[in-house]
Design brief:
homotetramer; 139 residues; alpha+beta; Thiol Ester Dehydrase, Chain A; five-stranded antiparallel beta sheet; three-stranded antiparallel beta sheet; 4 helices; 8 strands; 35% strand
Chain lengths: 139, 139, 139, 139
């Protein structure tokens, strides 16, 4: 199982009046972690789009364990949780600079044609990428 | 079971380059729905904050059924899914102007003191609000 | 001079840890005001996009006069400040529920082809819309 | 004149349906550049907040020269444009990976007490920080 670790810059605009990071921002962090994982294993989401496909989110889950505050260092760890012919699920952990777990989550994705949003089989259209995910996924 | 319906204004800034609403924005819509539900049943989140408490999110789940596009009308329907002494779960549906289901979700919340983020029992500190939720919750 | 008034719903996610609305959000409010002004005078930005054009921002200016807080009512007033063959400038005022001026601003736009981002003359491609702006603009 | 250069990670959520970065996001990038400049010259915005002050924005200006797209590398260069006893103005340039100028801008700030939002003189309360800005500012 391969885990990608990405440091996130926490901005002031990400905070809310509770003094913590507003919860919706974690989904942007997951996206940043996912993008880096894809690059680290040799692929590119922008290339997928140039080829005429995109990969919308089907499902998200986040469990918040500990608030993140402005000034904290934040890291997101991303891995491939499940990999099917049609759907890919990424797993995420958000930790702070003391390596305390702040949040856990997952996002499930399909691949669709950009022009009509019809789902395609990731396995058939991107077979090498799919096999790479088989190799690095959680076991 | 009481369901609050709130119309959301979809803005251009909420879209992404797939031409659909970026998924993280649904969490802001859920917040808008939740706030309106609270007001409709006679309470006020800003008043809770003035009293020294706030209500962070513990858990979120969203399942996306159909993309929302710029120019679509969007409504979020919000209800109380579960109501315990310590935790409240809200349920949400996002529908478009043709009443097609676009997303389903839930958010789970606790109530904490603003100064130290220690959880308190919603039931003990806001007993009338809690009873109102008992009355309107999903059965 | 025609002024469009749009009520904005202030969300918790729009606040920052100063307890006020984060400044970048005013640009989204300006967009909401601008969209409503366009609709009120009989046109539609989504229709412009369907016709193969879009209208990126060339310049923005905002002066902040008074903080907006969560729980405040907020209104944005929008008008056409200047209207040239190539560039349109909108003016904005943000006021709170006591009609106190919270911010002033402007955004300047061009119209470009969606496929290549080449500027076109608003006057030539949308002559009626242009004339409507001549009629309602600031004098 | 000291110029701080910060690389920004462009995320998918920052794009809009024109396929470019939504204009309001540049203000978050300016904030990231400003924060890094402050750190590089030996100060800390989070420390200012812990001392009971914060620094709201009075005025912003942005001129957009060239769209930024998902997949582009983006750098923001930040400097102190003006430094008065009461107001500090930062200047910004956004450039892409080919060092093409994508946007120019400025933000003007005051320092206020967090509890009552009354302005204080930056010069009197943070004299060393102020002198550092005198040293590094645009001449």
């Amino acid at each position: 199982m391969y885990i990608s670790t990405k440091e996130i810059q926490v901005t002031y605009g990400d905070t809310d009046m509770m003094g913590i990071i507003y919860h919706a921002n974690y989904l942007r962090w997951f996206e940043m972690g996912r993008t880096q994982l894809i690059e680290e294993v040799g692929y590119s989401y922008p290339e997928m789009e140039k080829a005429g496909f995109c990969s919308p989110v089907l499902k998200v889950e986040i469990t918040f364990k500990k608030p993140v505050r402005y000034g904290d260092r934040v890291f997101v760890r991303t891995w491939v949780e499940e990999n099917h012919g049609l759907r890919t699920t990424y797993g995420y952990e958000v930790v702070n600079g003391k390596d305390e777990l702040c949040a856990l989550g997952s996002t499930q994705h399909i691949v669709v044609r950009k022009d009509n949003f019809k789902p395609i089989r990731f396995l058939n259209y991107f077979p090498e990428w799919f096999r790479k995910y088989e190799e690095i996924k959680k076991k």
